[in-house]
């Protein structure tokens, strides 16, 4: 599967870069993830509320032999920027020591971090619950914090007996301070627990006891359930791990991900087997996708992985154009429209696209299209320029047509928007329409014909309802022109393939 191999190659490349920078020495570094995205917009950039925990012995906090921390309470809390500092990104990630929990309802995680999200109007009620009875109010944040984050640290022996109770009591006392720090509704916050060592804050990744806890939980999450076989990446034999350790949409009942598995029977033996030697690079590759090759803006409510693969392999990186090298190294995080940038790369690279959505702790795979060359994207964009010029551009009163403002990204948004507007109001109808629309996008990206007659039939069947809707009528002329442009685009795509 090209997508998995490309992810594996990205992970190996990143691991090699980390070693060159002096990082990546610890195996758990390959399994670390970002606790929240890095946002360039300063007004929306994440913040971290640091909880300074006091321990009975300062020396124990960074003693490699210490596996249990006796927490006596909280000395203070403060606020810092999420990604501040001059350290390399690897080092910043290491200090948070974060990995997503294995499930949404688990009673343990990997990290002493609680995700607060944007600020709430009434922080005290949010944290302490109704009548400040957080211990019995399972909807309160303090209740969730205790049960899903702190409890297991004491149960597993990372915290000494009574530590959790002392932490929660001091948090209650400092609820006013927490309200001051958790104040901005436009940005997300983390509540992070570290150690106060003589006035210096030690992040979780700097505390050996936390690293030992992380390693123990990681080993637990990776052990068990594997079958004997051959690794699909390196060919070695032995006990294999399943791909759902890395991608939570890689479950045994997903026919779209496991062709040939018409039902769950025997699917476990068909899943992409990975050995313990290859899993770290695959895990790091997944984190590279999340941080550098993830688009969440082109289509509302959907995430798109853009996974690059060099046809000559990563060893051919030096041979390709500078533009392609820069893309492999930096990803898609620039202001230029993503699909336009991809279309301008040379054909020594191909792309694999995954359209998916987050569903609590799970990931739902909607569409996967592999082996897409940049030239195909360029042809599609040229077709859209022709359609836009023919049907839409004059409505803006432009005297000159500037095709630089007309992109394939725009075409994808228009197709998705036009067809989504034809869905009914029920959730079921919207789900069906989403599948129908993604199938069309998949056929376009895959270089295949689209059944335009079905799209026309769908539009016509909705006209009577749309024409009777006063709100739709207000912009109906423009919406009809967009429909015509989309139909023309799909028709030209079919003609191009003849």
Compile the SSE list and pairings.
Elements: H1 2-20, E1 47-55, H2 58-61, E2 71-81, H3 89-96, E3 113-117, H4 123-128, H5 141-155, H6 163-173, H7 175-181, E4 189-197, E5 200-202, H8 208-222, E6 228-230, E7 237-239, H9 279-292, E8 294-295, E9 303-310, H10 322-330, H11 338-343, E10 349-359, E11 362-372, H12 374-391, H13 408-420, H14 427-445, H15 452-467, H16 470-474, H17 476-496
Parallel strand pairs: 1-4
Antiparallel strand pairs: 1-2, 3-4, 4-5, 6-7, 8-9, 9-10, 10-11
The total beta strand count reads: 11
Structural class: alpha+beta
Rounded mean pLDDT is: 87
Q: How large a portion of the residues is in β-strands, by DSSP E? A: 15-25%
Discrete helix count: 17
Distance between the termini: 29 Å
Which term fits the overall shape? globular
Percent of residues in helices comes to: 40-55%
Low-confidence stretches: 259-266
Radius of gyration: 26 Å
Largest sheet: 5 strands, mixed
Order of helices and strands: HEHEHEHHHHEEHEEHEEHHEEHHHHHH
Model description:
It contains 17 helices and eleven strands. It is of the alpha+beta class. Strands 1, 2, 3, 4 and 5 form a five-stranded mixed sheet that branches. It starts with a helix and ends with a helix. The model is unreliable at 259-266 (pLDDT under 50).
Which keywords apply here?
498 residues; alpha+beta; 5-stranded mixed beta sheet; 4-stranded antiparallel beta sheet; 15% strand; globular
Give a concise summary.
41% of the residues lie in helices and 15% in strands.
């Amino acid at each position: 599967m090209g997508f998995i191999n490309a992810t594996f190659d990205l992970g190996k490349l990143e691991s090699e870069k980390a070693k060159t920078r002096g990082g990546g020495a610890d195996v758990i570094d390959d399994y670390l993830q970002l606790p929240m995205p890095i946002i360039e917009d300063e007004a929306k950039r994440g913040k971290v509320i640091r909880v300074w925990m006091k321990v009975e012995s300062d020396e124990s906090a960074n003693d490699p032999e210490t596996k249990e921390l006796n927490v006596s309470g909280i000395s203070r809390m403060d606020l810092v920027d999420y990604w501040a500092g001059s350290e390399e990104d690897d080092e910043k990630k290491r200090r948070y020591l974060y990995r997503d929990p294995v499930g949404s309802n688990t009673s343990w995680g990997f990290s002493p971090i609680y995700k607060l999200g944007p600020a709430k109007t009434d922080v005290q009620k949010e944290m302490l619950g109704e009548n400040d009875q957080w211990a019995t109010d399972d909807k309160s944040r303090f209740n969730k914090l205790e049960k899903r984050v702190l409890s297991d640290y004491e149960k597993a022996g990372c915290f000494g007996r009574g530590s959790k109770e002392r932490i929660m009591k001091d948090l209650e006392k400092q609820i006013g301070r927490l309200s001051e720090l958790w104040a901005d509704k436009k940005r997300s916050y983390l509540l992070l627990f570290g150690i106060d060592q003589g006035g210096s804050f030690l992040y979780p990744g700097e505390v050996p006891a936390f690293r030992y806890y992380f390693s123990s939980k990681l080993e637990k999450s990776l052990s068990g359930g594997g079958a004997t076989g051959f690794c699909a990446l390196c060919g070695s034999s032995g006990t294999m791990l399943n791909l759902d350790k890395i991608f939570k949409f890689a479950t045994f009942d997903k026919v779209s991900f496991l062709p040939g598995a018409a039902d769950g029977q025997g699917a476990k033996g068909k899943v992409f087997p990975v050995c313990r030697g290859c899993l770290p690079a695959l895990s790091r590759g997944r984190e590279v996708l999340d941080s550098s090759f993830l688009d969440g803006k082109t289509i509302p409510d959907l995430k798109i992985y853009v996974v690059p693969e060099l046809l000559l392999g990563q060893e051919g990186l030096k041979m390709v154009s500078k533009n392609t090298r820069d893309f492999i190294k930096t990803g898609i995080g620039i202001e230029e429209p993503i699909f336009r940038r991809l279309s301008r790369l040379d054909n020594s690279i191909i792309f694999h696209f995954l359209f998916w959505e987050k569903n609590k702790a799970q990931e739902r795979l909607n569409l996967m299209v592999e082996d897409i060359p940049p030239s195909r994207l360029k042809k599609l964009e040229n077709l859209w320029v022709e359609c836009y010029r023919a049907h839409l551009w004059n409505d803006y009163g432009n005297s000159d047509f500037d095709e630089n403002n007309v992109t394939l990204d725009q075409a994808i948004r228009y197709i998705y928007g036009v067809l989504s507007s034809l869905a009914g109001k029920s959730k079921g109808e919207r789900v069906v329409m989403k599948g129908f629309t993604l199938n069309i996008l998949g056929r376009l990206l895959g270089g295949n014909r689209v059944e335009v007659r079905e799209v026309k039939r769908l539009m016509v069947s909705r006209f009577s309802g749309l024409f009777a809707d006063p709100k739709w009528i207000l912009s109906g002329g423009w919406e009809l022109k967009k429909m015509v442009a989309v139909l023309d685009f799909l028709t030209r795509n079919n003609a191009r393939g003849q």
